[in-house]
Amino acid sequence: MSDYEAVIGLETHIQLNTTTKIFCSCKADSWFDPPNTNICPVCTGLPGVLPVLNQAVVEKAVLLATAMHAEVRPVSYFDRKNYFYPDLPKGYQISQYDQPLGSGGYLDLPVPATSSPDGRPYVRRVTIHKLHIEEDAGKTKNDGRQRFIDFNRCGVPLIEMVTGPDLRSADEAAQYLTRLRQLLRWLGISEADMEKAHLRCDANVSIRPRGADYLNPKTEIKNVNSIEAVREAIQHEIQRQIRAVEAGQRIEAWTLEWDEDNSELRKMRSKETEADYRYFREPDLLPVYVDEQWKWEILKDMPELPLERRQRFLQEYELPEYDAEILTSERNLSDYFEATVRAYAGDPKRVSNWLMNDVLRMLNDRGLTADQLKLTPPFLAEVLRLVDANTINTSTGKSLLGKVEDSGRSPAAIVEQEGLAKVSDDSAIRNVVQAVLDANPKEVESYRAGKVTLIGWFVGQVMKQMRGKADPGMARQILEELLG
Ligand SMILES: [Zn+2]
Asked: Could you read off the pLDDT of 298-312 as tens digits, one per residue?
């Protein structure tokens, strides 16, 4: 184990999935649109226009703040953050400065054994310093000779959330982002796709001797656009700082940029971080009032949160950690699981096995989510009961899943119509066994000469003849009887 520990804080920008932008009625999501097609006088800062706050932005921010255990301020304010940059046509960004919507809060991060330095799972509490609403700036692109500007992203609603310096490894940082992404999708407030910049992350990284409680100068890593890249970039930076300190160098407060193609960090030239933004209250917007009544309206449909649900799955259904994790990875998958458990009224672990092996594969293959399946929870429960009752065998049950999904018809109806029920009629199996023995005199001879392991091969032949519908136990019994 290294003599140093990392001290990491993350600054995330979350793009909310509202229909329109934060202060005008332009379309918010421009991912598939040509540059400068979703713009208007408000979001491009023409003189004489006034911003109007999109109520849905506040509602989504209240949901997130509450899910992060943050306090929602009854009155918060918008401020102007002044700076000059070509992608900011107004010359300022509307943001929240000293009285943001959310304050305090935390996320209890369950760190699995596989990411733990001593191989034991633990919980890391990640505190939230600040949660505020702001508008996005535009996008600039440089082709080496010219710079292009796209204002589509101007005025897209963002939530900025800054953690305390609580994370202790690159792995923990990646875990945090994974949990945050899960939560945002669970709440239905953001696509949270880092590759599409719906979730952006800057990381502040420093190191100190293990066990120390002071903070050293930190560097800031920008421009990382996947969770894996965040992990890799932070890991690189921790190693670089350790090497530097051990060589007697001082760590300077650089801003670094992650170059994904070459897996290396580069120093950024700009000293933007030191700018004086001359914040002042936004005079064109009223304060944001979130009274108890409105808060209640927003929160009344608040779902059980993913980590709570995961915990409940462990306890209530006695599922292994692995199952509980996968089944709560998405909200509609965990809803599907619970609905099936209720409809089946049998062992929850059995439902989990079928779900994780067969239903998940089907979702993947067909590009569906659990709530879109025609193989509904009652139908899946019915398949399980048909197998339990020995009406069909397991492999017929598995092939039945696809047939139900294709047709939308009930499993029992398909079994009936296609004659899939298992044959446990003694005389029917006996006839097939006799035919198999007659057709394979050499094998019968070897068996009788002592090669009893051939029994498995005989059972296989009978099953094949009966297209998998024979009861294998009975087939074996009859074979042994006639061969003996
Ligand atoms: Zn606009």
From this structure: 999 899 999 999 999
